[in-house]
């Protein structure tokens, strides 16, 4: 009987490892993606702005926290009107960030440590100082139709006026009159960011060449920026209908329904083209270059993009409007469930808590929630993206109007800039307790460092005796290496106003219960309905804020029929077999 059983196990183990091989996950499914905003990560030359050498000097940080893929926001030459999203050369590095050789070094050093590098691809527009635009203004071929030009219409007094009512994402006009060319050009963002004309095959080819340039160098993937705005209808006489949203002024983007300028079906062709350009290049591990696209859309719309050759459409459900202050256990489960249930079969889920355009999660939930949020992000099924600073629970910084840098904020003036300015979520990463948190030797960094840097910083959190956000992050990243977290099932367990909990398991692996209190009151719950008869577990990780009975700590065994969690507390529990219990 015993022999028979072990024989069966032996056969199964051969068989099962075969299954595992066949379902081998790609690197972008198993790694955490870590977003770096280069201006704010680490300054190596004392000018107050982060740079590539700074990032290189901190590669060990990624190793330490267990991140295997980094994504860099733009570092290309740029007049910096939109801090790098206004590009004047897509295949070079801005001197403020370093040189192409610095980038090559970064790539080599990352690859040595098995860290993938993803770069930002900004296809929608260029800077108005890009040589293509300057040539287009002069009407020179082949650049004449590289941008979206129109004569406009004749106004009452014979002057040319703009052809329609479209609005910029940043607020106000999208049509800018150009004296030299005697035409209007279209800009979905700033007037210094003219939109490229994707109805021109030469533009498509040039942008494919940009992808080829970086792929050839060895870049592992691209993150495509602002995809929604890529195409506009050709007939510019069409006005967009009013959204009728209450209280939205005429100037604001949300005043209109963007049926002619947003999410046009032509985007599909563009994505397919980029995928083909990337597929021209082989990789060492045989995994095609990775493509993730950015846009804020319904799950149905974003998932449609999967069929076009992009690997992941960023899922911003947790970001925008996302996990607001009042979102409890059930509310978060519902958001998470949208991703799982809307995803086509065989597609891979992903989750994001923040980025350089939206409020930090600690701003919405309070600093005390940092650990609970990271526990959620890193234990869900799917690829997590971490915005720099989230690993130490960084908080936003108040920036007075006078010091505001972000054009989106400035566009709305002193009264409303705080609603739109992205400066508060873009402040320097806090490395240590030195002056300017070790980010720079300059007296004044480009944005202020948070006052709390003496305690909230990487160095202090590494050595802290009390569990710090950084330590928990590292621990959870290690836990993610476990098959149950990488590709195991996720089954919801207790869900109520406070608690969101789920079981992660895969065949033959330990089984885990993750439970987090996202509510405002204590919650004592019985989990045994979801644990297949198991009634005892062992704590593997906790959020560190265990100041009250029963003082949960690591390795503590807990009965699963009465787990008490206070707000912002969370546990990862390995379910024990009954046998062990005897
Ligand atoms: C971008 O910069 C590189 C290196 O300086 C240069 O060779 C290339 O012509 C530039 N591209 C454009 C479009 O100006
Ligand atoms: C998330 C993201 O990258 N958003 C960018 C979209 O494009 C505009 C204009 O280039 C940028 O300002 C945003 O930062």
Name some characteristics of this structure.
single chain, 582 residues, alpha/beta, TIM Barrel, Oligo-1,6-glucosidase, domain 2, eight-stranded parallel sheet, globular, binds 2-acetamido-2-deoxy-beta-D-glucopyranose
Describe this structure in words.
A hairpin with a 6-residue loop joins strand 15 and strand 16. The chain has two domains: 28-124 and 203-228 and 265-475, TIM Barrel; 125-195 and 232-264, Alpha-Beta Complex (Oligo-1,6-glucosidase, domain 2), CATH 3.90.400. The chain is built from 19 helices and 21 strands. 29% of the residues lie in helices and 15% in strands. It is globular. Helix 7 packs parallel to helix 8 and helix 13 packs parallel to helix 17. Mean pLDDT is 94; it is low at 12-22. With 582 residues, it is of the alpha/beta class. The protein has helices at 2-22, 27-30, 52-57, 59-65, 100-112, 131-137, 201-217, 267-279, 299-304, 318-322, 329-342, 361-365, 370-379, 407-411, 413-420, 458-463, 469-479, 483-487, 578-581; strands at 33-36, 69-72, 116-121, 149-150, 153-154, 160-161, 175-178, 183-186, 221-224, 290-293, 312-313, 350-352, 383-387, 489-495, 499-505, 512-517, 523-525, 536-542, 557-559, 563-565, 570-575. The strands form five sheets. The protein has an eight-stranded parallel beta sheet. The two termini are 23 Å apart. The protein binds 2-acetamido-2-deoxy-beta-D-glucopyranose (2 copies).
